Amino acid sequence: MSEITLQIDGLTKTYLPGTPGEVQVLRGADLTLRAGEVVALVAPSGAGKSTLLQIAGLLDVADAGTVEIGGQDMAGASDRKRTRVRRQDVGFVYQFHHLLPEFTALENLVLPQLANGVSQRAAEAGGAELLALVGLSDRAAHRPAALSGGEQQRVAVCRALANSPRILLADEPTGNLDPATSDQVFDVLMRLVSETGLSALIATHNLELAARMDRVLRLEEGVLRAG
Question: Which partner from 116, 160, 198, 217 sits 20 to 30 angstroms from 88, CA to CA?
C-alpha cells in the first residue's frame, strides 16, 4: 500500500468564538492522503475548503486535531519547523496564479528553489525541465503579463512542484479559466501528479473534474464525507 503523505484527524476550527458572529467551519474533519493519489474536495463556497487546505499546508493552525505530513506530527511544532516542512513537502496552487509580475516564468520557478537552498544552476535546470513538461519552454523568458491565463496557471502549477513536494494542495486551480483552458490545465496537473508520484488534494466546484480524480470528499457541516 502506498505511503501516507498526509494524515488529518479530528480537525476543528472556529472563527470569532464566543461572539455573535461565531462560525464553526470544521467539526472533526478526518483525511488520509496517500502517495500518487488525487483527491477532490467539494463543498459550497464558505463551507471551509480553503481553511482545511491552509491548515493541511501549515499556513494556519486548527483549534484541535492533528496534522501529520510524511509521518511527522506537526502539533506543537515551532514556526521554524513548520516553515521548513512547508517549503520542502507542500506545494500550493490557487485560483489566481500569484506569479511575481517582475520576473520571467523561469525566474518564478527558480526563486522558491533558491529559498530552499538549491544552487542557481540546479534551480534553473529544474525550472526549465518543468516548463518543458507543460509545453512552455518557449515561454521561459516571458513575464506573466505576456502569458495567457492558461499559461500563467501552468507556470503556477510548475512553481508548486519546483521543490519536489510530497503533497500538492490546490484551491480552485481552474476556477478562473474558461472550460477549454480549464480542461487543459487540469490535464497537465493530473499528468504531473502521475509522473512525480506525489499526492494531491484539489478543491473544486467543477463536479466533472472532481469525477476524474481518484476519490471525491465532500465537506459537509465541517466533516469530510466520501462523495
Answer: 217
pTM assigned to the model: 0.89
- Domains of the chain by residue range: 4-226
Class of domain 4-226 as given by CATH: alpha beta
SS3 readout for the chain: CCCEEEEEEEEEEEECCCCCCCEEEEEEEEEEEECCCEEEEECCCCCCHHHHHHHHCCCCCCCEEEEEECCEECCCCCHHHHHHHHHHHEEEECCCCCCCCCCCHHHHHHHHHHHCCCCHHHHHHHHHHHHHHCCCHHHCCCCHHHCCHHHHHHHHHHHHHCCCCCEEEEECCCCCCCHHHHHHHHHHHHHHHHHHCCEEEEECCCHHHHHCCCEEEEEECCEEEEC
